[in-house]
Design a protein that fits this description.
Layout: E1 18-24, E2 29-30, E3 39-40, H1 45-51, E4 58-66, H2 73-85, E5 90-94, H3 100-106, E6 114-118, H4 131-144, E7 148-153, E8 156-158, E9 163-166, E10 171-174
Parallel strand pairs: 1-4, 1-5, 5-6, 6-7
Antiparallel strand pairs: 2-3, 7-8, 9-10
Length: 176
């Protein structure tokens, strides 16, 4: 379903709909040339899902447009509120990788929802990016995992209470 189209929430049961909340991060970064600064662009997840031919109903709600290093407690409270108030039982959150674990931990304890945070090490707009794989993996995870909060990165599912980003290896890993 194209990102611009919203399903009629009265005809799509909440348990069958996936809501995608976007917060910015590398997945949505746009670089103009090698000398310029990046900017957070429009959410890329809709394009990725549409090009992948994803079957299933979803909505996309742009929530923030920030690098995750710029997220603060008020942003995390707004994210928590959006998840708690969503009519969907299954949510994907696109998020920058640097503070993804902190945001996932801030969502702990929201009952009755499967929440999967996903990001990318390279912007989705680049020719070579992990964004497409990670988003597809998150789509599968949100449909199959029980209620709870998860991080889906690098082909693995992580419990945010026991995970970290390994900047040197450019991947997520369980805490030792």
């Amino acid at each position: 379903m194209p990102a611009e189209t919203q399903p009629d929430r009265q005809t799509v049961p909440a348990h069958q709909m996936v809501e995608v909340l976007t917060t910015g991060g590398t997945i949505d970064k746009v670089y103009f040339d090698a000398l310029s600064e990046f900017q957070i662009g429009n959410p890329q997840v809709g394009r990725v899902l549409q090009q992948a031919g994803v079957a299933g109903e979803y909505t996309i709600t742009p929530l923030l447009r920030k690098d995750s290093l710029e997220l603060n407690d008020a942003d995390r409270a707004a994210l928590r509120h959006a998840v708690a108030q969503s009519p969907a039982a299954r949510l994907i959150i696109t998020h920058g990788t640097d503070t993804m674990v902190e945001s996932a931990r801030a969502l702990a304890g929201i009952a009755g929802k499967t929440v999967v945070l996903v990001g990318a090490m390279q912007p989705a707009g680049l020719r070579v990016s992990d964004a497409e794989f990670n988003i597809g993996f998150a789509w599968a995870c949100v449909q199959t995992l029980p209620a709870g909060v998860y991080i889906a990165m690098n082909g693995q599912v992580f419990d945010p209470a026991h995970a970290r980003k390994n900047r040197a290896a450019h991947r997520f890993e369980p805490l030792p």
